[in-house]
Amino acid sequence: MDSTLDSVVIGAGQAGLSTSYHLARRGIDHVVLDADASPGGAWQHRWDSLSMDDVHGIAALPDAERPEPQGSERANEAVPAYFAGYEAAHDLPVLRPVPVDRVVDGTGAEAGLLVVHAGTRRWVTRTLVNASGTWSQPFVPSYPGAASFRGEQLHTHDYPGPEHFRGRRTLVVGGGASAVQLLGEIAPVTDTLWVTRRPPVWRTDDFTPDVGRAAVALVEERVRRGLPPASVVSVTGLALREQERLADELGAYRRRPMFSAIEPDGLRWDDGQRERVDVILWATGFRPAITHLAPLHLRSAHGGIALDGTTAVADPRVQLVGYGPSASTIGANRAGRLAASRVVRRLAGPSDPDVAVPA
Q1: What does the pLDDT look like over 2-24, one tens digit per residue?
Q2: CATH number of the domain at 4-136+286-348, please?
Q3: Cα(313)–Cα(226) distance, rounded to whole angstroms?
């Protein structure tokens, strides 16, 4: 911690491990600071009923075989085991648990460098790759009367499995893939309601590579302009899987528009009608976990961090991976390689744009 590192990576999920692999391959002196006590990134925290069938597998990490577990295997066990094996096989310099508090500009003898703080510990580095993901920042919108609700409110982040909801009338809020999936699990065991701000867009065509690339391009354009990143699914649309057919037959996907207020025993619609519910499940997504970067003033006037590839436009010492278009297993791998290349370029000298970057 007393020496100056070439790079510090924050986060050891798919994006962080990919970045570390490529940095190590290029001989870059670095550490990976991971807030969790064990390998697995956000996957280790996902609900027990999420199987590898539900997530359709994951992308292979660089220079590794794609894991092929049984479809019914729990994702919160299979993926962490894969990550742990990868860290060990490539001897990646992961330190944990290290929850980073803040990243600041160095002063005095450390001027021009970045200082990463985690409690009483600190690391001085020439460059930074942020791969902290979103799992630690669940988003729950503010609605009138929410504090008065006498039932239970919880977020996807804390989803305990379908049996928790048996016999309890459950309101699911949110228009993303997680809302569709959770309704698929809950509707067969209890009465459900589904509300979203906008009518859901159902995808009826095949999700081809071209469709995926077009969706990612739309998210990339938002990030390039400094807007807060949107999820890829927000532009690809929703689709029902075979395991959600029963919920569909039960009417779980008959969406209603947002309510006007929450009341002690339920909610009130815009027309004044009241609806009793026992549980509100907020499937309202996550926000990027980037508060520790606030001292660097990376946000644009539009509220997001403008990126050129993975490089923060406001501070080229900083790379962001797993942010915006790279917030997926496939995108994270590609972003990790690009971020490592940008780190090499930065270390070679920011004034030399033609420096050769190793492949």
Answers
A1: 699 999 999 999 999 999 999 99
A2: 3.50.50.60
A3: 9
